Amino acid sequence: MKDYLETECVEKIKKECLLQVFDEIDSTNEYLKKLVRREAIGLAQPVLVVAQRQTAGKGTKGRKWVDSPTSLKFSLLISFEGKQESLALLSPYIALKLKKALSAAANEEVKIKWPNDLYCLGGKASGILTEVIQKEGTVYLIIGVGINLASDPEVVRNLNSPVGSLFKYIEPSEVRRIRSLILSCATEEIIRAIKSLPEELSAEEIKDWNQSDLYKGLRLRLIEGERIVSEGQNVGIDKKGRILLQEGNQPKAFSIGEASLRP
User: Model's pTM, two decimal places?
Assistant: First the structure.
């Protein structure tokens, strides 16, 4: 922990979370799911797990997370006391709030691909995996986040899709400081978002999302497996966080599911 994160960052996070840092782990999300299952009593405070290396990290729809020394991997476990109806907004709402934090930290424009991928410097820079677990009447949320801090040629070679990052390059002497800053800012933003998770997005939040939409105004296909579910022009999201595709006079709203959005 001493070499991976700055002491000031660790102390700040410990005021809000139980922090665990691993040299190597299979998956931070899976670790937290097992933690919930084996705990005999409820978890009184959020648990933040950070991994220097993940051997079986995963993204949405079961996709494999390609690890890199220049990426930040962490998962947050937190109990949820809000209304169940609000959980439909969980993924896009966290993406929206995290976008602001990462954009400010990197001083770069960060775009959002519905429902919760963040793009910067020409490709995907961050992915978010949200999972909900219920145990003995308590709802727990697990928010897994992977962030490419700087470009890694090895990852670029191993992926077919464009790979982005928050920074083009980070001096080796600056990696620990920047990693600590991003982790602290991101964790704080996620906890704040969960505690204030609304049932509906405000007009200002919808405007913010639509201005940051990676596919703003483009004609898109909603694909599930090999099947095209729908096609239409992307006209943004609605107050429920659903993507709106317009074909004809009326836009159709689609909720988060197993479908992928592609141009």
Answer: 0.91
